[in-house]
């Protein structure tokens, strides 16, 4: 059996840019503002579990409270 994988991210729609914009907008709405470039340098390329742990710690630091009920 032969399979073909189609990777259209960035070909038809640059979904990463849209996702990043929406994510930063949401984070700002809960009191955790990030500069786009700094956010990308800090969080892009992490595994889902590492991203979640690091983002949760950053949001808690920026908001002074628990982020678990907000989005994680």
Topology of this protein?
Elements lengths: L14 H15 L6 H8 L4 H16 L9
Rg measurement, Å: 15 Å
What is the arithmetic mean of pLDDT? 85
Helix content: 40-55%
Q: Low-confidence parts lasting 5 or more residues at pLDDT below 50?
A: none
One letter per element, helices H and strands E, the order comes to HHH
- Helix/strand-derived category reads mainly alpha
Content of β-strand: under 5%
Distance between the termini: 39 Å
Continuous helix count: 3
- How many beta-strand segments? 0
Largest sheet: none
Cα shape:
elongated
Summarize the structure.
With 72 residues, this protein is mainly α. It contains three helices and no strands.
Can you describe what's shown?
With 72 residues, this protein is mainly α. It has a domain at 16-63. Helix content is 54%, strand content 0%. The chain is built from three helices and no strands. The chain has helices at residues 15-29, 36-43, 48-63. The model has no long low-confidence stretch (mean pLDDT 85).
Any key phrases for this structure?
single chain, 54% helix, 72 residues, mainly alpha, 3 helices
